[in-house]
Design brief:
Radius of gyration: 18 Å
Order of helices and strands: EEEHEEHEHHHEHEHEEH
CATH superfamily of one domain: P-loop containing nucleotide triphosphate hydrolases
Strand content: 15-25%
Largest sheet: 6 strands, mixed
Strand order of the largest sheet: 6-7-8-3-9-10
CATH architecture of one domain: 3-Layer(aba) Sandwich
Distance between the termini: 22 Å
Helix content: 25-40%
CATH topology of one domain: Rossmann fold
Length: 262
């Protein structure tokens, strides 16, 4: 494997950036984001250009303060950038009016967070279909049944969150993210509140959603074991991309992070 020029020696991977974002799930070109001004400014991400292929599972990792969460928030349209351009499913989201950006996130982006973010008074099925209901849309019942079956939720749809285990609640969150067939699902430490066995179960389901449902997933995590479920691990340090690993093991990921000071 090759080594990128700004990656510490011994860390494999080279960041490949295509000329255009056409055909990909998400793309960034020359994206930068800072907080504050003058000498106190924090440069969270610096001139990042990156492509995320469709039907792939990508993990973003780096030391604390590396900019991985900021990058995810910008890619998802949850935060604006100072410079550069961003695309979701071929749509340039840079500078989109708030109403259009909100609609795009609702219809074409899914989210799975560390907190399950389920409404306690609603059943699992109602939580899954809530975004469609809020948008005034119509639920594709066949697709709902397929997702529920794949995620092992068919016999839990009438249960409320307090009647479900942590793993089942996160599966409901994954099902909710999948329901609209989004261009991409963003995961922010999606297994952070789960024990190792349940976390492995959820990560396997995310990976299966790529293989069997054609889903694209971008996940931020600090856990090398979680990242090893991804097809690709993008490494960041000090707001910059410094390399990547493909189809890697927890030990190899841990070694790469150690060289980055994580």
């Amino acid at each position: 494997m090759t080594t990128s020029t700004n990656l510490p020696a011994g860390v494999p991977g080279a960041l490949a950036v295509s000329a255009t974002p056409e055909g990909g799930a998400v793309a960034a070109r020359g994206v930068s984001k800072s907080y504050g001004r003058g000498e106190t400014a924090v440069h969270a991400i610096r001139d990042v250009s990156l492509d995320f292929a469709r039907e792939h599972f990508t993990a973003i990792m780096g030391p604390s303060g590396s900019g991985k969460s900021t990058l995810m928030h910008c890619l998802a349209g949850l935060d604006s950038v100072d410079s550069g351009r961003l695309w979701i499913g071929g749509t340039d989201i840079t500078g989109l009016p708030d109403a259009e950006l909100t609609r795009l996130r609702r219809e074409r982006v899914g989210f799975v967070f560390q907190a399950f973010n389920l409404v306690p008074t609603l059943t699992a099925e109602q939580n899954i279909t809530l975004p469609v209901a809020l948008a005034g849309g119509t639920v594709d019942v066949d697709w709902l049944q397929q997702i529920s079956s794949t995620l092992g939720l068919s016999d839990r749809l009438s249960h409320r969150p307090h009647e479900l285990s942590g793993g089942q609640q996160q599966r409901v969150a994954v099902a909710r993210a999948l329901l609209t067939r989004p261009d991409v699902i963003f995961g922010d430490e999606p297994t952070g509140n789960l024990d190792s066995a349940t976390g492995a179960e959820v990560l396997s389901l995310l990976r299966r959603s790529c293989r069997e449902m054609g889903q694209s997933i971008i996940m931020v995590t600090h856990d090398p074991v979680a990242a090893s479920y991804a097809d690709r691990v993008v490494l960041m340090k000090d707001g910059e991309l410094v390399g990547e690993l493909e189809q890697s093991t927890p030990d190899a990921i841990l070694g790469a992070l150690a060289q980055l000071g994580a």
